């Protein structure tokens, strides 16, 4: 309650318990490549990694002038073993449960050790998994096929909204599940404003504003307070039934359900393109 009442974003604080060596160089490189692609000619593109992370709000100095990751920087770019050293309840989980024969067809978690386990890499990986559930009607622009629909944009917004509103001090972690009838995206913590207000355009009170800025800088999140309304609009525009949010308390948890059925209750999805960087 005290953290949520603070007008300063919790994730903007310098994590004095963490060292710059806790961050994953490959994740930083991948993020910077996307940043440069989206921001050609930006002055930050010529900065060193430490300068870039400081400008971005991913690093800051303590009272003695020593550079540390911020909580946002640690979450976005750290390795799981070091993130959990500072935030023991941190956990990420993706599952595909579309078969009745086996428990899941596909799964990865943040603690497996075969990837970084951080938020940025999770965002890329989970989007590339979940987008395969979306219908992609045949459409051409000139001679090029268009594989992007409003639901794809809505899905990206939904993942960003989940991680930037998560309370990483609370148990159960972030869980994304692809089931035959729906996609569910759940995060620890509840909205800091009533859901009815949160889904209105112009209403925004993210728990992790520094992280949201990092996503917005690569055009992967909405900073203008219309992200949640964009989720609802894009999903329904693509022909699916309306999304729903539910909240649980003690421990606090928010779950977004994105139906894979049409308004006429017909299951509708086709495989998307192969996994690519988004």
Keywords for this structure?
278 residues; alpha+beta; two-stranded antiparallel ribbon
What ranges have pLDDT less than 50 throughout 5 or more consecutive residues? 1-7, 269-278
What Rg do the Cα atoms give?
Answer: 19 Å
- Give the overall shape: globular
**SS content category:** alpha+beta
User: Which sheet architecture does the biggest sheet show?
Assistant: 6 strands, mixed
Which H/E pattern describes the elements?
A: HHHEEHHEEHEEHEEHHHEE
End-to-end C-alpha gap: 35 Å
Assembly classification: single chain
The overall average pLDDT, rounded, is 88
Query: Approximately what portion of the residues adopt beta-strand conformation?
Result: 15-25%
Question: How many strand segments?
Answer: 10
Number of contiguous helices? 10
Brief synopsis:
With 278 residues, the chain is of the alpha+beta class.
Describe this structure in words.
This protein is α+β, with helices and mostly antiparallel strands and 278 residues long. The protein has ten helices and ten strands. The chain has helices at residues 2-5, 25-38, 49-56, 71-77, 80-86, 119-130, 150-164, 195-198, 209-216, 227-237, and strands spanning 59-61, 67-69, 92-97, 106-109, 140-141, 144-145, 174-179, 182-188, 244-248, 253-259. The protein has a six-stranded mixed sheet, covered by helices on one side. A two-stranded antiparallel ribbon has the order 1-2. Strands 5-6 form a two-stranded antiparallel ribbon. 40% of the residues are buried. The model is unreliable at 1-7 and 269-278 (pLDDT under 50).
């Amino acid at each position: 309650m005290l953290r949520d009442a603070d007008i300063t974003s919790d994730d903007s604080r310098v994590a004095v318990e963490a060292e710059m060596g806790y961050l994953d160089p490959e994740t930083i490189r991948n993020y910077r490549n996307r940043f440069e692609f989206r921001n050609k000619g930006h002055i930050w593109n010529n900065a060193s990694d430490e300068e870039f992370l400081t400008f971005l709000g991913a690093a800051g100095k303590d009272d003695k002038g020593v550079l540390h990751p911020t909580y946002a920087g640690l979450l976005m770019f750290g390795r799981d073993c070091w993130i959990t050293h500072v935030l023991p309840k941190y956990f990420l989980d993706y599952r595909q449960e579309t078969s009745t024969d086996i428990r899941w067809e596909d799964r990865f978690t943040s603690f497996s050790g075969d990837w970084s386990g951080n938020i940025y890499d999770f965002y890329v990986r989970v989007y590339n998994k979940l987008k395969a559930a979306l219908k992609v009607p045949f459409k051409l622009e000139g001679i090029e096929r268009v594989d992007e629909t409003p639901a794809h944009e809505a899905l990206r917004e939904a993942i960003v909204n989940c991680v930037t509103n998560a309370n990483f001090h609370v148990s159960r972690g972030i869980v994304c599940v692809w089931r035959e009838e729906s996609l569910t995206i759940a995060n620890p913590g509840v909205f800091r404003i009533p859901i009815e207000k949160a889904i209105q355009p112009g209403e925004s009170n993210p728990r992790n504003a520094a992280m949201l800025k990092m996503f917005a800088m690569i055009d992967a999140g909405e900073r203008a307070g219309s992200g949640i309304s964009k989720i609802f609009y894009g999903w329904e525009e693509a022909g699916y039934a309306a999304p729903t949010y539910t909240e649980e308390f003690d421990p606090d948890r928010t779950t977004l359900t994105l139906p894979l059925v049409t308004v006429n209750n017909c299951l509708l999805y086709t495989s998307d393109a192969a996994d690519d960087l988004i």
